[in-house]
């Protein structure tokens, strides 16, 4: 019996209870999801407020396309024609700037005439920006802007070339119309305080040259001897510091013949040993650069120590002082009318042949190892007002800038990258904007000169017939012009890009026709009025429901 009991099988377990049905993610309209979503919305609404551009009622950007016809003469090379294209783009920007400034001037005059007793409200300054995805194209157009408007009217935000400090200074010039400067007590140069390298010492470049005319050196030696406390060495009569603007000619250069203006501006052309013509006249630089510190001042600033150190190092050391070029009588000797030297200055001294020895900044020449005069840091800070109407905006650091004051934005080529286009436009279309920014895409295209001349003659003939009342043609109708190619400013070739592009107002995608852009905007997922495509149970749709609180009266 026991054996039978042991072999008896246990009773079967009861069947497991049926599991409840799992919720279906394909049917998100069920009540548990709605309740969880509502709870999440109420929780997040109490934690933060999300402001969107649609809620702030910001003025929307206006997109425009402008075709610029650039005739190409027969036989013109590709590089020469490309420079002609860049000139046409730059001239178009300059024309827009001058037209806006003229309109602002007329608006101020009308306001003054309407309200003669009150001071007219100041019109907004003209602020425009030029953007390109390619550095070379923007640099070429910027050169045209510098030539047409002048360096004081153009700012460049180019961190890669200028560095963070100087690029920030350029941006401050454009946005605020001012810059903070300190004037160097030695050379008189205005140093921008935002330039990191020049915050403590003067950054003006000075050239040390050796005078090659013996009569000029003899006269300077006599004048230097009149200041005993200076303890000048004989070689000091030959060595002077000059500004690059004083270079009046290039006699010999190791790099061959060079234009004087290019040589003075570009330090990469300078080579020790070059023979230059230096203009020694006073006042040629104008402004605060008219006079230099006198020899008496240099004697009190430690120039004797500089003389001794330079002589000890055989004048190869990077130290020297900004002494007068052709010094007159010192203040302590000027009272003695007949006690001065009998030597006379060389007749009609203006240009003096000199050999280039070395060059560095003013702060390096006047090192604290010997210089005891007033420093740049002790100079007072001044605010200089500037009117800078145009900013060249490069791609490398254009994200995140606040340019809400922009009125016009030029794109030198169509931008097919919707994310990049949104970033660039959002520099102006952001909180703080008070007017719509015009985003104008410039599209130059090639025409041949003979076709342009033929069409102009046809227009002139039509105008003459219209004035005379004649309907008879004077010549047969011209044949349609042959297809023209679009200019690709970077590849130096012609492309078949469409004449115009149309931008979606919400995602900034580009389309070739207005109908395609309108149909896309109706179904765009970023369109706040389009609820049919919204993913209701995504976190982004939850964020979209968090709006700012109502305005309290």
Question: What does this protein structure show overall?
Answer:
This protein has 553 residues and is of the alpha/beta class. The protein is built from 16 helices and 18 strands. The protein has helices spanning 2-7, 31-45, 53-56, 78-114, 135-149, 159-176, 214-225, 260-265, 295-300, 303-312, 331-334, 362-365, 418-426, 449-468, 514-523, 539-544; strands at 62-72, 128-131, 154-157, 178-183, 190-192, 205-211, 239-242, 247-252, 275-279, 351-361, 381-385, 390-393, 408-411, 438-448, 486-488, 493-495, 502-503, 510-511. The strands form 5 sheets. Strands 1-14-13-2-12-3 form a 6-stranded parallel sheet. Strand 4 and strand 5 form a beta hairpin. The longest helix is centred in the N-terminal third of the chain and has 37 residues, at 78-114. It is elongated and about 120 Å long. It starts with a helix and ends in a 9-residue tail after the last helix. Residues 24-28, 329-342 and 470-498 have low confidence and may be disordered.
User: Which strands sit side by side, in order, in the main sheet?
Assistant: 1-14-13-2-12-3
Structural class: alpha/beta
Q: Determine the fraction of residues in helical runs and give it as a percent range.
A: 25-40%
Describe the main β-sheet briefly: 6 strands, parallel
Using the CA coordinates, give the radius of gyration.
37 Å
Give the gist of this structure:
With 553 residues, the protein is an alpha/beta fold.
Attribute tags:
6-stranded parallel β-sheet; alpha/beta; 5-stranded antiparallel β-sheet; 553 residues
């Amino acid at each position: 019996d026991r054996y039978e009991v042991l072999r008896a099988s246990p009773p079967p377990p009861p069947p497991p209870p049926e599991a409840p049905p799992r919720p279906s993610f394909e049917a998100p309209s069920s009540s548990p999801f709605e309740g969880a979503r509502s709870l999440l919305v109420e929780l997040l609404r109490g934690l933060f407020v999300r402001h969107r551009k649609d809620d702030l009622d910001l003025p929307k950007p206006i997109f425009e396309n402008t075709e610029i016809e650039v005739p190409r003469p027969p036989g013109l090379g590709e590089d020469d024609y490309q420079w002609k294209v860049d000139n046409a783009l730059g001239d178009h920007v300059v024309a827009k700037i001058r037209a806006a400034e003229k309109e602002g001037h007329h608006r101020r005059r009308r306001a003054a005439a309407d309200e003669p007793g009150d001071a007219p409200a100041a019109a907004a300054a003209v602020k425009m920006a030029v953007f390109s995805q390619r550095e070379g194209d923007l640099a070429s157009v910027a050169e045209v802007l510098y030539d047409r408007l002048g360096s004081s009217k153009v700012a460049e935000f180019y961190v890669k070339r200028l560095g963070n400090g100087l690029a920030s200074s350029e941006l401050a010039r454009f946005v605020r119309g001012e810059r903070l400067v300190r004037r160097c007590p030695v050379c008189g140069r205005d140093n921008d305080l935002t330039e990191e390298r020049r915050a403590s010492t003067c950054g003006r470049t000075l050239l040390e040259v050796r005078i090659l005319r013996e009569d000029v050196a003899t006269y300077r030696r006599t004048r230097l001897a009149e200041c005993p406390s200076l303890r000048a060495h004989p070689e000091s009569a030959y060595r002077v510091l000059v500004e690059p603007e004083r270079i009046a000619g290039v006699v010999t250069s190791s790099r061959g013949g060079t234009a004087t203006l290019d040589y003075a501006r570009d330090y990469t052309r300078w080579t020790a040993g070059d023979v230059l013509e230096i203009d020694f006249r006073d006042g040629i630089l104008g402004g605060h650069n008219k006079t230099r510190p006198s020899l008496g001042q240099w004697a009190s600033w430690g120039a004797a120590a500089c003389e001794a150190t330079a002589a000890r190092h055989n004048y190869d050391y990077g130290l020297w002082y900004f002494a007068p070029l052709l010094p007159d009588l010192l203040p302590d000797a000027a009272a003695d009318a007949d006690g001065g030297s009998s030597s006379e200055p060389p007749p009609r001294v203006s240009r003096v042949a000199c050999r280039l020895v070395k060059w560095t900044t003013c702060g390096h020449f006047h090192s604290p190892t010997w210089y005891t005069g007033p420093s740049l840091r002790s100079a007072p800070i001044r605010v200089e007002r500037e009117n800078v109407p145009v900013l060249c905006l490069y791609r490398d650091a254009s994200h995140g800038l606040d340019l809400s004051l922009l009125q016009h934005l030029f794109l030198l080529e169509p931008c097919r990258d919707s994310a990049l286009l949104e970033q660039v436009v959002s520099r102006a279309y952001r909180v703080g904007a008070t007017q719509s920014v015009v985003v104008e895409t410039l599209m130059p295209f090639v025409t041949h000169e003979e076709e342009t001349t033929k069409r102009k003659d046809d227009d002139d003939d039509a105008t003459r017939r219209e004035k005379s009342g004649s309907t008879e043609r004077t010549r047969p109708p011209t044949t349609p012009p042959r297809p023209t190619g679009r200019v690709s400013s970077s590849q130096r070739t012609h492309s078949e890009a469409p004449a115009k592009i149309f931008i979606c107002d919400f995602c900034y995608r580009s389309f070739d026709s207005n109908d395609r852009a309108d149909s896309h905007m109706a179904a765009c997922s970023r369109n706040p009025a389009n609820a049919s495509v919204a993913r209701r149970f995504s976190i982004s749709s939850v964020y979209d429901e968090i709006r700012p609180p109502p305005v309290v009266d």
